[in-house]
Amino acid sequence: ICRILFYCVMSFQDSVLICDEVDAVLNKILIDNGLKVSYEPEITAEQILEKISNFNIIIVRSRTTITKEMIDKADNCKIIARVGVGLDNVDQVAAKAKNIRVINAVEGAMNAVAELVLGFMLSLARQTGRGDRAVRDGKWLKKELKGTELRGKYLGIIGLGNIGKRLARLARGLNMNIIGYDVMPIDEEFAKEVGLMKADLSTLLQSSDYISIHVPLLDSTYHLLDAEKMSTMKKTAKIINTSRGGVVDEDALYEAIKNGTLGGAALDVFEKEPATGNKLAELDNVILTPHIGAQTKEAQSLAANVIGEKIIQILRGVI
Ligand code: NAD
Q: Residue of the nearest CA to atom 11 in ligand 1?
C-alpha cells in the first residue's frame, strides 16, 4: 500500500523532447506525471543537435531519425522512445554504448497492419483500384474485371510474430487456408487455433496464392524475395509487403509482374521512401500505398498510450 501511495504522489522532473507528431494522449500521460514536455513536431535535425543535451527523454515516430551524431551529444538522455514498431530510425548501437534505453510499442500496429493486408488481398482479388481508375476515366470495364474470391485460397505468411499472427486470425475468418513460415518455432496452440500449416519457405512460396511478409529488415531478410524465389511461385500469386522496403527485390518484382510470371503485388513499404516515381506504378495489378500500415487513429492512440506508460514505469524503476 505504501508503494502504491508513493507512486500516486510521485512525479518526475525529467524533460522530454517530442520530435514528431504523436497522439495527444502521450503528452497528457507525461504531463500528468510531472514531466516537462517540449512538443516540437516540426523540429529539424540541426535543431535537435543544438538542444538534445537539455533533454532526458527523446520521443520520435517516423519523420525523425536519431543519429549517432545526435546521441553523442545527448549527455543527459536516459530513454529514446519510438511511438511505433520498427527501430530503424534510431541508432541503437550508439544508444546502447551510451547506456540509453531504446523502447518501442509493438502492440499499436498489430491490428492496423493486419487489416491493411486484408484490404490489399480483397482489392487485388477484385481489382478495385483498376475499376475505380477506369470509372473515373469514363470506362466501364465490367467484363475485364472478373475477379476471384479469397475463400479457400492459400495465404502464405512469412514471419509469424505480432502482425503475422493477427493476420492469420483475420484471414481464417475469411475461410482462407493459412501456411506459415518463421525462423523461430511457431507456437503449437496458435497453429491449431487458426489451422496453420507449417512449411519451409520454398514449400510456402510454391503453394500460396497470396504471400504476405512480416519480418524485420535484417541482413538475412534483405531481398528475401528475389528473382529466383519469385520464379518458383504460382503465376497467379500475389506478393504483399507491409514489413520493410528491401525485403522484396522491387526490380525483380517489376520484371516478374510485367512478364506475367507473377499475378500482382501490394506494397506499403519501399526501398526508397517516399516512393513517388517508383516504376511499379506503371503496372495495373499493383497497389502502392505511402507506408500507412500503422496510420489509423486506433493504432496511433494505442502506441502513444503504450509509450507513455512504459516511460513512467521505467522512471519508477518497475521495468
Ligand atoms: P515481430 O518481431 O513481432 O515478428 C517478426 C517475425 O519475423 C518473428 O517471429 C521472427 O522470428 C520472424 N523472422 C525474422 N527473420 C525471419 C526470416 N528470415 N524468415 C522468416 N521469419 C523471420 O514483428 P511485427 O511487429 O510482427 O512486425 C513485422 C514487420 O512489420 C516489421 O518489419 C515491422 O517493422 C513492420 N511494420 C510495418 C508497419 C507499416 O507501417 N507498414 C507498421 C508496423 C510494423
A: 184
